[in-house]
Design brief:
Elements lengths: L4 H6 L4 E7 L5 H17 L5 E5 L7 H10 L4 E6 L6 H18 L3 E3 L7 H17 L9 E6 L5 H18 L3 E6 L7 H9 L5 E6 L6 H16 L4 E4 L7 H16 L38 H4 L24 H9 L1
Parallel strand pairs: 1-2, 1-3, 3-4, 5-6, 5-7, 7-8
């Protein structure tokens, strides 16, 4: 575990921290997020820590910042409670923070997403180890690992999920590894799993690389269950998502320390808004705006929108019609009616 002493002892008394979450229609996901926040608070009790959501839930981020100001905080460190840097981390949260800072004269330093480090890989490995320990009979070298990521319109974020897969495959010695996604990009869970099963493996470990439960984790479960039911001769083992694992908490503290040390550098080399990435050249210099202002804190409007992830005005994803991507959800959803 990372020592919290240096953070507790070095921070000035007028600094506060806000953790920025997305929000969820699933109460369990919100409870899990708050549990993570409380663990962080327990590790740095001398520093005020608040949290806010982009949408669905309250407090929204601006309300959390109000709370910090009411405590006498004069400078804020804001952390995105996100695994990778895609639209929410690069656009939505910074837009909210910039607006609040400009309107209230409150300096806000923005930290990095959790990203990739040995701690996060260790947390992922621990969740997979739980499955291995509960099923000690099957040989790892004869097992297929499938990692399910959220999926984004940002190829850099998607590629990081693939890197997690490879690190886990080599770390454990799995027979093979594949990466699938819950939405936006390709391959999605159902077609991705079906293609992977053509490799002939009789055992599959499915690991949802998500922080919390929620609509998308449930989608991963539903789609994988459908594939499993269609392939009764294959053993499917489901690992848990990351949640409040101690190594995840350590990574949050590491990101706080980076801001304090002036080391909170984001990866701009592969950012589609800053470099001419193949296939995404038209998005260079895209305006940094939030797509959530109209739904901040509102669960009633959003709960009526079953395809919420496509309800905001994002730059169009160039492969939205890919045969292994979001178009496959149409037939799946019809089969559930």
């Amino acid at each position: 575990m990372i020592s919290s002493a240096s953070i507790n002892n070095k921070y000035p008394s007028n600094i506060g921290i806000v953790l920025c979450g997305h929000g969820s229609r699933d109460p369990q996901a919100v409870e899990e997020f708050i549990k993570v926040v409380n663990k962080i608070k327990s590790r740095i009790p001398n520093i005020p820590v608040e949290f806010g959501f982009l949408e669905f839930n309250r407090p929204i981020i601006s309300e959390a910042l109000d709370q910090l100001r009411n405590m006498g905080v004069e400078k804020v460190i804001a952390l995105p409670a996100m695994l990778f840097a895609a639209g929410h981390t690069k656009n939505d949260i910074p837009a909210v923070l910039n607006k609040y800072s400009a309107e209230n004269g409150l300096p806000i330093q923005y930290g990095r997403e959790l990203g990739l480090n040995s701690l996060m890989i260790g947390a992922a490995g621990a969740r997979i180890q739980e499955v291995i320990d509960s099923n000690p009979i099957f040989p790892i070298s004869e097992t297929l690992l499938v990692v399910a990521g959220r999926g984004a319109s940002d190829p850099d974020a998607n590629s990081n999920v693939c890197k997690i897969t490879r690190m886990l495959v080599e770390g454990f010695g799995f027979g093979w590894g594949e990466t699938v996604f819950s939405g936006v990009t390709f391959p999605l869970v159902d077609p991705g799993l079906r293609n992977a099963l053509k490799l002939g493996f009789k055992r599959v470990v499915l690991f949802p690389y998500f922080l919390f439960s929620g609509v998308l984790v449930n989608r991963v479960k539903d789609h994988s269950m459908k594939v499993a039911n269609d392939n009764p001769d294959i053993q499917f083992l489901n690992a848990s998502y990351l949640s409040d694992h101690d190594l995840v908490i350590d990574t949050f503290l590491e990101r706080i320390q980076e801001v304090f040390n002036g080391e909170n550098f984001m990866n701009c080399a592969l950012c589609k808004y800053r470099s001419n990435l193949l296939g995404f050249e038209n998005e260079v210099g895209y305006k940094q705006i939030s797509h959530h202002e109209h739904v901040e804190g509102c669960i009633d409007i959003c709960s009526e929108n079953k395809s919420h992830e496509h309800s905001h005005e994002h730059f169009p994803y160039p492969h939205a019609e890919h045969p292994l991507g979001p178009v496959t959800l149409r037939s799946f959803n019809k089969s559930q009616i």
